Amino acid sequence: MNILDTVNQITRSFDQVESIVQALPFAVVLTNEKNEILYHNEMFEQMLGKKEIAYLLLQPLKLLLNQESLEFIQIGMNLHTEINGNPYVVRKEAAYVHGEKHYLYVFSSVEQLEQLLNINREKSVLQETVMEYAYDGNAIIEENESTKNEFKEQNKALFNLQDIIGDSSSLIKVKQETEKVALSDSSILLIGESGTGKELFAHSIHHASKRSSSSFVKVNCAGVPADLLATELFGSGYGEGSATATRISKVEAADGGTLFLDEIDELPLHIQVKLLDFLQETEVQNVGSSVTKKLGVRIVAATNKGLEDLVEEGEFSLDLYNRLNGVSIQIPNLIERKRDLTILVNHFIHKFNSLMQKQVKRLSKEAEEKLYQYQWPGNIRELESVLERAVNLVEGDLIEVTHLPDKLLTTTLNPIVPLADLIEKTEREALLTAIDQANGNRSKAAQLLNVSRTTFYEKLTKYDLV
Fold it and tell me: What positions does the domain Sigma-54 factor interaction occupy (predicted)?
């Protein structure tokens, strides 16, 4: 069944109430048993800033959201309600997109969505039922004793070292280092330019560790407003016993597993102090609470900036830096592993062929040359974007230069100068400089160049400088 058939089959089953779902002011998603997207409303498209149905449908929800760099603030929260005496549980999630909070409601089966929507076709009833959970601070949110286990099941490492593609020597070396350090419980600092795949390495570390059966929890330190970040990481003791107290903090959710702090350089100083305390004491005290909890969490942090410079500027804690930098891994950029370019190109062509139902086979020789000439400041993420654009534009099976963005077409390689010519040019310039500094005294010029008078005069003759 192709994507359009999937859309038609799903929408036909509740065509009379689809207008209600489309009118809701928050995202609604229907997934199958593999957590692949079968249906979504327009608010979900707006949330991601994408309009291509083919891009969104049949993608794993969690993988798609990770690709879109959405920072979850609530994951797997169960909303229990009754409509006409029938119990229903809908998964509620929320994420920050460009600093704005969005709600996402996930239905796990066609039947569940059909039943909920068909109970009453009056728009007002459905609106009131779901809107209560979205905007009423006193909404009844029920979280049973298995919340942590549910969270754990939903937050597994998505990638392992085999998913990091390439066979260049620099990449192989880093993968070998990663495999070794993953076995310990030491904190790890991943250092690399934007787009080099630091998050893939973080997932791989968790997957290869003794903690792989427990949660892998990601926090983008730049993606959550500073005034909320401390509570997100360490929880809140306010309102204990109320619905708002049922949400667990990130460090608690990662207990027994791995907490991945992406863009650690964006962590505010007052939260750096609290994180350092947590690393030293391995216990957490919720904001506003006197209760202390002992936890076992491994920290993996990532940065694309020089933390040493931030330490010198007083923007990053030296103690926290030393604590995190016990084991550091430098992720190579794409220029350092250009041997992997062909492998990565083939991988992304295959990926976008599947998503767009295309039959692209390869790049033309001229287009391939342009890819090798380009310096790739955005690294693998930029390469993926370029190839997504190209596969979108191509009509046949060959990606031509015309399918590449202009920034690649204006790139030219520096001309290769023969080594002999380069040596001669350098020697001639050295002779002239020495004679000038010796005020024309050639014996002194020879001494400055640390060569004998015989060799000096031979060089002068060779370059016609006598």
Answer: 164-392
